[in-house]
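Write out the 3D structure for:
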Amino acid sequence: MFQQVTASLQSFGNFSAQELSLLYDRLKVTAIKKDDYLVREGQLCESFYFISQGSFRHYTVQENGEEITLNLFTGNEWLLEYRSFISRQPSRNIIQAVTDSEVLGLSIWHFHELARLHEKFFQLGCILEQAVPRQDLLQNRLTPEQKYERLLLGRPELLQQFPLKHIASYLGMTPETLSRVRKKISS
């Protein structure tokens, strides 16, 4: 179970077996059923998580009830509700399991404890930046075809793991537009 976490962590810095052991002792394994929530609107995000299996959608609900997908996460990725975690304020967004999933959580308190124990754990802060919504600032200037092609090149696995309505929202287009783009690109 910890092999995936180790591989991810080593991409941020060279952690010794002893340092990894300190971290593993503080990780909490949690099973999340499909459609259950990891973070609800109005809840404080107390931890950041490594997805050992499954997938999650990070979204917000507009005043008119429309759901806007901010990010999509799959196995071997880190996730959190960034603003809530950093500001210690209740979340305005939601993180929901799209499939039966399992996460390894590190609480903010354990994160601070590790940082006090060894300066190397400050590198874990890089993980937090990974979980910030990935849609780059220029994406709104891209055509629907360019957005979809960028998804195909960068994160094609999302197409197998998420409903098209969530992918369309993530790309900032309607499901109908996504359908037309997919048809155009495949022909």
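The chain has a mean pLDDT of 88.
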